[in-house]
Specification:
Length: 309
C-alpha cells in the first residue's frame, strides 16, 4: 500500500519536475525536487526560531507553511555518531529542561555535552517548554532535538501532503578547531557522517552546507565538489572577500555575512565572482526591505512570517 501511494504521487507530479527514480528504501524526496534556486531565497532560521522552538520538527513544518524556500538548521554529533539537529554541542541553558523537570543552568550546560551522550539520552531533554529570554512569541510545547534523518523524513511527508516542491536545506556544521574530539569529531569525520545521511535521502542537489569553520567547507570542496557551500562570516571579521576566498582555497557558492556587513561594494564584489549573498539574521521588516532593495540574493530570519508582510 505504501509504495502504491508513492507511485500515484509520482504520476501526479512528474509533469512538475524532472526527477530520478524513486528510492524503494526511503520516502520519494526527489519527486518534485527543483535543481536550482533562481528566486529570492527566504530562509527560516532554525526553522522559525522567533515563533517555535528552534531546530525542531514543528518549527520546520511551521516555516514551510509560511512559504520559506530554504530551511536553515544546525547539526551536531552524538556519542553514537548520529546527526542531531541542534545549534549547540551541548544542552543550552536558554532552551533546555532536564528529564527531572529542572531547567538547565548556564553553569552546567557545557557539561551536558551531546558528543558524550547517546541519542537515546539526548531525547530525554525537552527543548520547547522553557521560556526563551529573547523570543517571547515562541509557542511553548514539549519537544526534543530530532535526528537529522527523522527531520528530513517529516519534511518529506509534509511536502507530499501539501503537494508542493520540496524546500532546500541550509545545514550548518557546528564545529571549531578547539572543539575537535571534545564536542565533535574532526571535520573530515563530521562531513562524512553528514554526507551519509544526505546521500541516503537523495537530497544532495537541494543542500547547502554552511560553516564558520572553513575546514568543513574545504574538505567538502575537495571530496564532494558538487555540494554547494556557504562561508559564514562573523560581524567582527575584518577580512575582505578576496582574503576569505584565499583562506578557503576556492570560491564558495554563497557568502553569508552578519547583515550589518552588507554594503554595495560587497554585493558588487560577490556578484562579479558569481557568489550569492545571503546575510543573517534579519528580524525586522524594514531591514529586510532595505537589503532586498540593495540586491541580496536571500535573507535568513528568525521570523519568516515577515517575508509575507
Amino acid at each position: 500500500m505504501k509504495y502504491s501511494c508513492q507511485i500515484i504521487v509520482f504520476i501526479l507530479l512528474m509533469s512538475c519536475s524532472n526527477s530520478k527514480k524513486i528510492s524503494k528504501e526511503v520516502l520519494p524526496y526527489e519527486v518534485v525536487a527543483p535543481v536550482s534556486q533562481t528566486e529570492f531565497d527566504k530562509q527560516g532560521h532554525r526553522g522559525c526560531r522567533g515563533l517555535m522552538p528552534e531546530n525542531t520538527i514543528p518549527a520546520m513544518i511551521n516555516a514551510l507553511g509560511l512559504g520559506v524556500t530554504t530551511l536553515e538548521m544546525d547539526v551536531v554529533v552524538s556519542k553514537d555518531k548520529k546527526l542531531v539537529v541542534s545549534h549547540d554541542n551541548w544542552m543550552s541553558s536558554d532552551i533546555t529542561t532536564k528529564p527531572n523537570g529542572e531547567y538547565v543552568t548556564a553553569a552546567e550546560e557545557k557539561s551536558l555535552n551531546i558528543y558524550q551522550m547517546n541519542y537515546d539520552e539526548v531525547k530525554k531533554y525537552d527543548v520547547g517548554m522553557k521560556p526563551h529570554p529573547r523570543f517571547p512569541q515562541q509557542v511553548k510545547m514539549k519537544v526534543y532535538k530530532p535526528l537529522l534523518s527523522d527531520l528530513l523524513d517529516s519534511i518529506a511527508k509534509d511536502m507530499m501532503v501539501r503537494r508542493r516542491p520540496f524546500p532546500f536545506f541550509n545545514i550548518e556544521t557546528k564545529c571549531s578547531p578547539a572543539g575537535d574530539n571534545i564536542y565533535h569529531p574532526k571535520p573530515e569525520e563530521f562531513v562524512e557522517l553528514l554526507m551519509t545521511v544526505l546521500k541516503e535521502k537523495g537530497i544532495e542537489e537541494r543542500v547547502i552546507i554552511q560553516s564558520f569553520d572553513f575546514r568543513t567547507l574545504m574538505y567538502l570542496h575537495q571530496k564532494y565538489p558538487a555540494i554547494r557551500t556557504a562561508a559564514l562570516v562573523e560581524p567582527t571579521d575584518k577580512r575582505n572577500l578576496d582574503a576569505i576566498i584565499k583562506e578557503l582555497g576556492f570560491t564558495p557558492s554563497i557568502y553569508s555575512p552578519e547583515y550589518h556587513l552588507v554594503n554595495e561594494s560587497l554585493l558588487s564584489a560577490c556578484h562579479t565572482k558569481n557568489i550569492k549573498v545571503i546575510p543573517w539574521t534579519v528580524n525586522d521588516k524594514a531591514t529586510i526591505n532595505k537589503l532586498k532593495a540593495m540586491g541580496v540574493d536571500g535573507i535568513i530570519s528568525d521570523y519568516p512570517n515577515l517575508f509575507n508582510e
